[in-house]
Amino acid sequence: MLLISCPNCGSRDETEFHYGGQAHVPYPENPNELTDRQWAEFLFYRDNTKGAFAERWLHSTGCRQWFNMLRDTVTYDIQAVYPMGTPRPDAAVKATARTTPETGTASTAADSTTTGSAAPSTSTTSISPSTSETSTTAPEGAIK
Questions:
Q1: CB atoms < 10 A from the CB of 57, how many?
Q2: What confidence score (pLDDT) does residue 143 get?
Q3: Over 80: is that where the pLDDT of 51 sits?
Q4: I want to staple 112 with a disulfide (CB 3.0 to 4.6 A). Which of 32, 107, 138, 140 is the partner?
């Protein structure tokens, strides 16, 4: 579950919000001059990027105000929340400030299921009730 920081109300549970689609989609200057295909592309075609993505959100059960959010679509990390009508913040500054490699459950290795080439190896995994209950160390790649 995400904890979203509303610019007006503060941090709230994601169940109070509704997703509004891609942010910063410009309205056509002359919509009456568009062909049916161009109009359909404006209405329905949106980017599907992997990484930082600008989105519109509505705080539907709180202040009922729209705002923009810059969120990583892979890690769900909320990078910025900013008011409607303001330009998108630069996500590159935050990404280059990281000195440690990113960790998580997604893998880009050749045997990863995210690439569709093969199933991940389970040869090193052992499950035993006595060790799993008493173990306090997280597996490699896990984050707190």
A1: 21
A2: 65
A3: yes
A4: 107
Q: What is the H or E stretch that residue 43 is in?
A: helix 36-44
3-class DSSP state of 131: helix
For the beta carbon of residue 55, count every other beta carbon within 10 angstroms.
17
Band of pLDDT at residue 101, cut at 50, 70 and 90: very low
Q: Is the pLDDT of residue 128 over 60?
A: no
Q: How far apart are CA 69 and CA 91, in angstroms?
A: 11
- Please state the φ and ψ torsions of residue 113, each to the nearest 5 degrees: -75, -15
Residue 8: exposure state from Cβ atoms within 10 A (0-12, 13-18, ≥19): exposed
**Average pLDDT, integer, range 57-64:** 96
Give how far the C-alpha of residue 61 lies from the chain's centroid of Cα atoms, to the nearest Å.
22
**Spatial separation of the C-alpha atoms in residues 26 and 24, rounded to whole Å:** 6
**In this structure, what token pair is assigned to residue 127?**
């499950």
Q: Rounding to the nearest 10 degrees, give the CA dihedral for residues 107, 52, 71, 105.
A: 0
pLDDT of residue 141: 63
Q: CA torsion 88→91→93→97, rounded to 10°? A: 150
